Amino acid sequence: MMLERRSVGDRGLVVSAIGLGTMGMTGAYGPADEAESIATIKEALDLGVTMFDTADVYGPFANESLLGRALAGRRDDAVVATKFGGAELADDGTVLGGANGRPEYVRASVERSLRHLGTDRIDLYYQHRVDPRVPVEETFGALGELVTAGKIRYLGISEARPETIRRAHGAAPLSAVETEYSLFSRDVETNGVLATVRELGIGFVAYAPLGRGFLTGAVRSEGVLAEADLRRGFPRFDDANLRANLALLERVERIAAERGTDSGRLALGWALGQGRDVVAIPGTRRRSHLAANVDGGATPLDDATLRALREAVAPDEVAGTRTSPRDVGIER
């Protein structure tokens, strides 16, 4: 398997087409095994994965610390992407409030993430959620200063509207926009986000390209999810919506069977097939799933398969909204 390298934006950032989302390694989807998580990160490096995605709010802070420990001795082999401002956090991890984009909080968050990651620079730094109380120009003005200071290499924004992306990019050039994108979540195709990043020369990072695991076929009822699994709060994972969506998944599975593969590999191939400016960051906590993800990213799909998948799942057929009602920081 040879993972393709892709440019993320037009400012020089290059990463593996498939990255690794680490959120689940610190309890987001139920109990996690730290030793297995670290082994998974190390094996990802060995398989050619270079992009590793985390955030200060995952844990909080525990996820950044775990990634930092796993990359010890191999930091230069990795592109570390982390995020700030999804929630306002105290230094002890207490959640003090919602999204925070104030310049003073930005500066404090960078220093805190550098400490937890055990590094001297953050390769890609995202505003995790837009703070409606603070003009995005103020937030990215502060971030631009931190790029100049060498603490950050490249900038990104997550789950933002096209007009917010434009304003942030005008204040300090963006390399990446990160938003959920999969066969089951395609609103970026119609809400202007993909068109905007392509016009501005910004890369697109697709999180949850496996539909938070649903497109692998591993979640066929709400009952398989651990009590602490955050997916229990997502409408698509309640039993009624899951039952409706299984009919769509079965269409994908039939296409996969005809091609001698599985639905997860096809879903990743589909995401990467939407353009060379798209990078996908599926998450996994286990080495047993990692190789399949890398294989999906290393196996291009032909036009006929891409077309068949798009026709098999119409966005308006998917039951349930993609986000939790609690995720109020997403700009819609």
From TrEMBL:
Domain of life: Bacteria
Biological classification of the source: Bacteria, Bacillati, Actinomycetota, Actinomycetes, Streptosporangiales
Signal peptide per UniProt: none
Record has Oxidoreductase as a keyword: yes
This protein's UniProt keywords: Oxidoreductase
InterPro entries: Aldo-Keto_reductase, NAD(P)_OxRdtase_dom_sf, NADP_OxRdtase_dom
Protein name (database record): Aldo/keto reductase
UniProt domain NADP-dependent oxidoreductase: residue ranges: 17-312
